[in-house]
Amino acid sequence: MSTTRAAAAGMPPPTVQELGKGFHAFVQLDGSWGLNNAGVFAGEEGVTLIDTAFTAYRGRALRDAVTALTDSPVRTLINTHHHGDHTYGNFLFPAATIIGHDRCREATIATGLETTKWFPGVDWGEIAISPPTVTFADSLNVYCDDVHAALRHLGPAHTTNDVIVWVRELALLFAGDLVFNGGTPFVVMGSVAGTIEALTELEGLGAQTVVPGHGAVCGPEVIGHQLDYLRFVQERAGEGFRAGLEPLELGRRTDLGAFRSWTDPERLVGNLHRAYSELRGEPRGTPLDFDRVVDDMIEFNGGRPLHCVA
Ligand SMILES: [Zn+2]
Predict the structure, then answer these.
(1) Share of the chain above pLDDT 90, in %
(2) Ion ligand 1 nearby residues (CB, 5 A)
(3) How far apart are CA 114 and CA 105, in angstroms?
(4) Separation of CA 190 and ligand 1 centre (Å)
(5) Which residues pair with 55 in a beta bridge?
(6) What spacing in Å lies between the alpha carbon of 41 and ligand 1's midpoint?
(7) Which domains does the chain possess?
(8) Taken in order 93, 94, 97, 103, is the CA torsion positive or negative?
(9) Over the stretch 180-239, which tens digit does the pLDDT of each residue have?
């Protein structure tokens, strides 16, 4: 069972953290591969969810956490992007209107359960792909009872379809996977330069509380740490590209310094692949050979598969 696997790896059970005015974060530490966060607004008139979870088991744990907070139905579900850890649990909320970026719907359908092949050993349960049914291109207003939440597309950044949820009244930002607190950013499906621009915009919002896509709830300073990493990647990529090194070789020769302690450091190799794409002048978000990228990350880890205890 999934709990055993996570517990054996030293992971605590999910927790619910109150953020004010009915907003909560459903946090799954340590935030490594597949252990994502969700947002829950438990209102009088209904519940608004931000993202779900990777496996059927974890999705049900989220649903149980919502039920423990309120009897109100889940009316609205916002997906911050198409990745399975944020969308695979969508089907557990069949009465909700699912909102996402235009390309989130496309990518959720096109990707299907494909992602599962990269994470052997995970107990997925029965998952039915359930994509957004209301989509938008740039921005959308959502009301959580009478609290305004601004949905905004940024990027390509972490993916081509990232959406943030900004609750100005509480200076509360749901950043999706634009922010990994204590985790290595992963921009291979989006853009290094685009993520730097997106994070720079997030820094300007004036958020006091940030719910990252992965890792503990934090303050805005974490945005700056993620920027430091991505600028480092961009610089290293420039050197390696000019020296004619493949991303895997460059990754092996790179001293990550303080970033080494972040979870999933092998993402460096994926990020370098994306940086090289940009150095070749390809448009941001251009699809790359993700199977090769994953193979390279596994090589970087000495042949061990990606460490996912979801
Ligand atoms: Zn993601």
Answers:
(1) 96
(2) 83, 177
(3) 15
(4) 10
(5) none
(6) 21
(7) 2-232 (3.60.15.10)
(8) positive
(9) 999 999 999 999 999 999 999 999 999 999 999 999 999 999 999 999 999 999 999 999
